[in-house]
Design brief:
Chain lengths: 385, 372
C-alpha cells in the first residue's frame, strides 16, 4: 500500500500541469454473459507489455471484479470468476452465469492497477447492472395430482404432483397443506425430506406420507396413528405463492378433495386383472382393468408386451383413477399370441407391491405364496381371414 | 462426512498430517481413484451428499447422473481450527453470483487434512441448478473448490430402471436420489431413495473404483418389534465398529436407528437391520456422526424436530433388537442437546469438536462446538 501511495504522489506531482488519465468504461455484455472493460490506450499498452512476458494473456482478477448488490449494499464476497486481459481486451467471465433479476456491481480498481503495473493511476470505474429475465416466462400451474381417483386409502404412502413448468425446489413443504372436512389445517403428515423427490425435469414431485406413522408398531404409528386416520374427507392444497424455477408464482390455489377410505393392505393381484383385447390390425389400445388403483408413476413403466416371445413397443397410460391401463402399440396389432409381463415391483399407492405387501406380519404365512413367480397375462389375436 | 470410528484422529494428528502435506511438493501425486481416473472437468450434474476418505478423496453423490464421483482433494492442506461463519448462505450465494434464495446447501463435510469445511451447493432453484463445492476455512474465507481441472473418477450406480427400460417411452421420470454416502476401510456405502417404488437400495462400492465391479445393490428391510417387516429407505448412515466387526449404523426415514454388519452387504442380499433405538416420533434424522469421549462412544444425530441427540453407544453390542412395545424411547439411551437448535448438517472437526450447519428462518451459519 505504501508503494502505491508513493506512486500516487508521483502522479499528482506530474499532473500538476492539469493532465488526467481517462477512466475505463465498463460494459455488461448480456449476450455473452461477461463484463468488458474498455481501457484507454495507455492502460492497454501497459497491460500488453506486461502480458508479453506471459503468453499474451494476463489474469487480473484483483483489478476487475463483480459483486452481488442487494438493497444497495455490495456483498462482502466477490463473485467467483476470472478477469483476463487478452488480445487487447479486458473481460470478466463469471464461473457461474449472471442470474436474471439479480443486481451486480462491476468495479475496475485503479489503485489495484497501479499496485500491480505501476505508472500513472487510472481512475476507478463502476457499473451497476441487472440481467433482464430473458423471456416472458409462462405462469406455472398444477396439471395433475395422483392418485387421481375420488378416494384415498387411509394408509396412503405416495402421491405425485405434476406441474406445467419446472418449479422452485427446496420450498415444497411451505406450499402444501392438508385440510379436513371442516377446512381446518391438518398436520401435513408428509415425510418432509430435505432432498425433495423431483423427477429429472423438475415438473413432478413425489410425496411420501411419513412411513413411521404408516408402519404398524412403530412409535409414531402407535402414538399418532396414520396421517389420514379419523378423516372422512380431506383436501390437498397447493398454495398459489409457489414460484416456478423461472420465478413466476402459480398465482392461484390448487385444491383437490378426496374421500378417505379404509386402509389397503392387499397386494395387487394380476390374476384378477381383466384384459380387453384390441382389434386385429388396429392400433387401438389394449385395455387392462386392474383389481384396484395402482401407483401412477410405476404403472406406466412396469408392463412389457411380448408377441411370440419378442417385446413390442407400446405406450402405457393409466386411466380411470389408475384403475385401468391402456397399452397403445406403435405398430398395428398383428395376429399371434401375446403376453403382458408385469414387473413384480409394481406397487399400489399404499406401497403394496405385486411381490410383497408394504408390511408383512412375520407371524403369518406369506399372503399369496405364488406371488414371486413372474406375473403375466396372455391373449391371442387370430387372423380369421 | 459421517466419520467412522475406524479413523479416529485427534487435532494433533490432524496438524501433523497437514504439516506433512504442506511439505509435499506441489506435484503431490495425490491418491489413486481407480479405473477411469482422468483429469479435467468433473461432469457432475447435481449437488448431492459429500464424504471424505482419510487421505483426502472427496466423494460427491450426483442423483441426476445416478453416479458417484471421487475427486482428488488430497493436496488441500492447512492447519485446522474452529470454523464459525454467520451468514454462510449469503456469502456462498455472493461467491456464486446470486442471492441466498438462489442456492441450497445440500451437505457439509470436513476435509480430513486441512480441516476446511466443504459444502455441496445447488446454485439455481430448479432442475437446471448447477452443482458447486464451496470451502470455508477457519478465517471464514469462502472459496470455490474448482471442479474444472482436477483428477477424478466416476462410478455409475447400478440402475434398476434398466430392468424395465424396454417398455419406457418419453422422458424418464424415475430417479434414485442419493440420500447419504459414507466411506469406511476401502468401501463407499451409498444410500438411496427412489421417487417411485418404496423398496430401498443400498450400494457398496469398492474404492479405488473398479469398473468391472460396479457395486452391489442390497435391499434393506426394517423389522418393527419382531412382528412386522417393511421396506426401509435409509436416510443417513455412518460406519461403526461393533465387537471388532465393521457395521453400518443407519437411521431410516422413520427414525429408528439400526445396525447391520458390513459383511452382510453382498450383491442381491436382503438385509434386515437390527433396531437398536427408537428415537421418538415427529422426527426425521438428518445427519449423524460417531465419536468417542472418555473411552465411551456416542452418536451425534441432527434431527428435523427433536434437536440434536447424543446417543450412548456403549451398550450397542449387547442391545437386542427391539421386540417389545415401549412408551416412548426404546433401546439405546439418548439425551437431547437442548441448546443446539436448527442443526441440519454436522461433521466431526477433530477429536473434540463438531462443525454444525445451522439453518433457520434468519439465515444459515457454520458453528464449531465442543462434542457434548
Amino acid at each position: 500500500m505504501r508503494r502505491s501511495a508513493a506512486r500516487w504522489g508521483v502522479a499528482a506531482l506530474l499532473c500538476l500541469g492539469g493532465c488526467a488519465l481517462p477512466s475505463p468504461e465498463l460494459e455488461f455484455d448480456e449476450a455473452e454473459g461477461v463484463v468488458r472493460a474498455e481501457l484507454p490506450e495507455s492502460l492497454t499498452r501497459r497491460l500488453e507489455s506486461a502480458a508479453a512476458d506471459a503468453d499474451g494473456r494476463l489474469t487480473v482478477s484483483e483489478i476487475l471484479h463483480v459483486q452481488v448488490v442487494s438493497a444497495g449494499d455490495e456483498a462482502s464476497v466477490a463473485m467467483h470468476g476470472s478477469a483476463d486481459f487478452a488480445r487487447g481486451e479486458l473481460v470478466f467471465t463469471p464461473s457461474f452465469p449472471f442470474a436474471a433479476g439479480v443486481g451486480y456491481r462491476a468495479s475496475f480498481d485503479g489503485a489495484a492497477f497501479v499496485e500491480r503495473f505501476g505508472g500513472l493511476p487510472p481512475s476507478s470505474a463502476e457499473l451497476d447492472f441487472r440481467p433482464a429475465v430473458d423471456r416472458v416466462s409462462s405462469t406455472p400451474r398444477v396439471v395433475a395430482l395422483y392418485p387421481s381417483g375420488d378416494e384415498l386409502p387411509q394408509n396412503l404412502l405416495r402421491m405425485y404432483l405434476h406441474f406445467s413448468e419446472p418449479m422452485r425446489q427446496g420450498v415444497a413443504w411451505d406450499h402444501l397443506r392438508l385440510e379436513d372436512a371442516g377446512g381446518r389445517v391438518l398436520e401435513l403428515g408428509l415425510l418432509e425430506l430435505d432432498h425433495e423427490l423431483w423427477d429429472p425435469s423438475g415438473t413432478r414431485l413425489t410425496l411420501l406420507f411419513d412411513p413411521g406413522r404408516l408402519k404398524s408398531g412403530l412409535l409414531p404409528n402407535r402414538e399418532e396413528g396414520r396421517p389420514l386416520d379419523g378423516q372422512s374427507t380431506i383436501a390437498f392444497v397447493v398454495d398459489g405463492s409457489w414460484h416456478s424455477a423461472e420465478g413466476t408464482p402459480l398465482g392461484t390455489e390448487h385444491r383437490v378433495v378426496y374421500a378417505v377410505g379404509p386402509p389397503d393392505h392387499t397386494q395387487p393381484r394380476p390374476a384378477e386383472w381383466s384384459l380387453l383385447p384390441p382389434g386385429l390390425d388396429s392400433r387401438e389400445p389394449l385395455e387392462i382393468e386392474l383389481d384396484g388403483p395402482l401407483d401412477h408413476g410405476m404403472l406406466e413403466r412396469s408392463l412389457v408386451v411380448l408377441r411370440e416371445g419378442e417385446s413390442i413397443a407400446v405406450r402405457a397410460s393409466a386411466t380411470r383413477g389408475e384403475r385401468a391401463v391402456l397399452l397403445t402399440p406403435e405398430e398395428p396389432w398383428a395376429a399371434g399370441s401375446y403376453i403382458v409381463q408385469i414387473n413384480s415391483r409394481l406397487e399400489d399407492p399404499s406401497g403394496n407391491s405385486v411381490r410383497r405387501p408394504f408390511e408383512t406380519r412375520l407371524t403369518e404365512e406369506p399372503q399369496s405364496p405364488g406371488e414371486t413367480q413372474p406375473a403375466r397375462l396372455s391373449f391371442v389375436l387370430v387372423d380369421e381371414g | 462426512m459421517r466419520v467412522s470410528l475406524l479413523r479416529k484422529f485427534s487435532l494433533s494428528t490432524l496438524i501433523a498430517t497437514a504439516a506433512l502435506a504442506s511439505l509435499s511438493l506441489p506435484s503431490f501425486a495425490g491418491v489413486s481413484l481407480g479405473d477411469g481416473q482422468t483429469t479435467g472437468k468433473v461432469p457432475v450434474r447435481s449437488a448431492g451428499p459429500l464424504a471424505f476418505s482419510p487421505d483426502g478423496v472427496l466423494f460427491l453423490g450426483d442423483s441426476l447422473s445416478g453416479a458417484l464421483f471421487a475427486v482428488d482433494s488430497s493436496a488441500d492442506a492447512g492447519s485446522p481450527g474452529a470454523i464459525s461463519l454467520d451468514g454462510v448462505d449469503r456469502k456462498v450465494a455472493a461467491l456464486l453470483g446470486t442471492t441466498p434464495e438462489g442456492i441450497r446447501i445440500v451437505d457439509l463435510a470436513v476435509h480430513p487434512k486441512s480441516g476446511r469445511a466443504y459444502l455441496s451447493v445447488a446454485r439455481g432453484s430448479g432442475p437446471e441448478a448447477q452443482a458447486a463445492v464451496v470451502t470455508v476455512d477457519k478465517a471464514g474465507t469462502v472459496d470455490l473448490f474448482s471442479l474444472d481441472e482436477v483428477a477424478y473418477s466416476k462410478l455409475e450406480l447400478p440402475n434398476p430402471v434398466s430392468e424395465t427400460a424396454e417398455d419406457r417411452r418419453g422422458r424418464p421420470l424415475r430417479m434414485q436420489a442419493i440420500t447419504d454416502i459414507a466411506y469406511a476401510g476401502g468401501k463407499v456405502l451409498v444410500a438411496g431413495l427412489s421417487n417411485e417404488e418404496f423398496s430401498s437400495r443400498m450400494h457398496t462400492l469398492d474404492f479405488p473404483f473398479t469398473q468391472a465391479k460396479s457395486g452391489v445393490g442390497i435391499e434393506v428391510y426394517h423389522g418393527a418389534h419382531g412382528k412386522w417387516e417393511t421396506h426401509a429407505p435409509v436416510r443417513t448412515l455412518t460406519t461403526y465398529d461393533i465387537g471388532g466387526a465393521a457395521h453400518v449404523l443407519a437411521a431410516y426415514t422413520c427414525t429408528p436407528l439400526v445396525t447391520f454388519p458390513v459383511t452382510d452387504l453382498v450383491d442381491g442380499a436382503e438385509v434386515r437391520g437390527t433396531t437398536v433405538a427408537e428415537l421418538g416420533n415427529r422426527n426425521r434424522p438428518l445427519d449423524m456422526i460417531v465419536y468417542s469421549d472418555g473411552g465411551q462412544d456416542y452418536a451425534l444425530m441432527a434431527n428435523s424436530s427433536r434437536g440434536v441427540m447424543k446417543v450412548d453407544l456403549s451398550s450397542i453390542e449387547s442391545q437386542e433388537g427391539l421386540t417389545s412395545r415401549v412408551a416412548d424411547r426404546a433401546g439405546l439411551k439418548y439425551e437431547t442437546i437442548a441448546e443446539l437448535q436448527d442443526v441440519t448438517q454436522l461433521d466431526r472437526l477433530d477429536g473434540d469438536h463438531s462443525l454444525l450447519l445451522i439453518e433457520s428462518d434468519t439465515g444459515a451459519k457454520l458453528q464449531t462446538v465442543a462434542l457434548p
